Amino acid sequence: MKLLPITQRKIAAPEPPPWAREVAGYEADELGNAADLQISEHNGMRLISVALRGCREFASEDLRREVREGYHRIFRELQGFHPMRFWNFIPDIARVEAAELDRYMVFNAARHNAFLDLYGTEEALGRNLRTATAIGHDEPDLFIHCLAGEFPCEAVENPRQIPAWRYSNAYGPKPPSFSRASIARLGRDEEPQLLIGGTASIRGEASRHLEDLAKQIQETIRNLSELIANAAGDSANPLTRLTSLRVYRSTTIGERRMESSLRPFLPPDLPIEHRLATLCRTELLVEVEGTARLD
Fold first, then answer.
1. Count of domains forming the chain
2. Which three-class secondary structure state does DSSP give residue 45?
């Protein structure tokens, strides 16, 4: 797969990374300026994008209802395609609502219930989850993107972490419904590769190295390495398998500082896309996602 050039972005637009838009033939117009539903399809790949308008002002129950219906809308548009990867851009993701639940926890409850509606049981839900990212942004609308393909894919977990869908209720009444990564073919003639979901300084289920950027980067890199090695079945130099990386950084961290702190751990020619964002846990300073080859 040929990757598009990756630019440095100052503000996180609510869109998937360039590689995902390319494989599905995504049009240049952003969803924020188009319809509430946008579907792109190319070479056995489909990208389904849903905009939930005005969600920033919604109370918890309204947000839960809209997110659940937004996922149902995506499921209806799959039409035989298999979900591989999700991106969720959530307004005011860290804002605390009623009962001391932040909006990410409210979102997680709605997403979990939508998947339960689809798969029927908790066991089936756990078997069928695919990787995802959930990031906060400053626009009023909530955006959900689903990359799907003609071929089934395989979930991958990280031995250093509890699967997110098995988190305790310390992180909300319903757990985050995603796997750490997916092994998928991005087109009819493509070899399987690894799609890596949002990865941060979390061991087990707990955040580590609060407010310490250097140590959070080291922990994140360990998780990234372990995840790639687990998927590839080869622990030798797993980071050299990376083919793209998107970095979400806290608003308290400058781009130059993030680049200089992260780059020494990565292949020198790896394209990195920097995004300013609000992360799902306020104590986290960095989250990464990307793609990696498995051959």
1. 1
2. strand
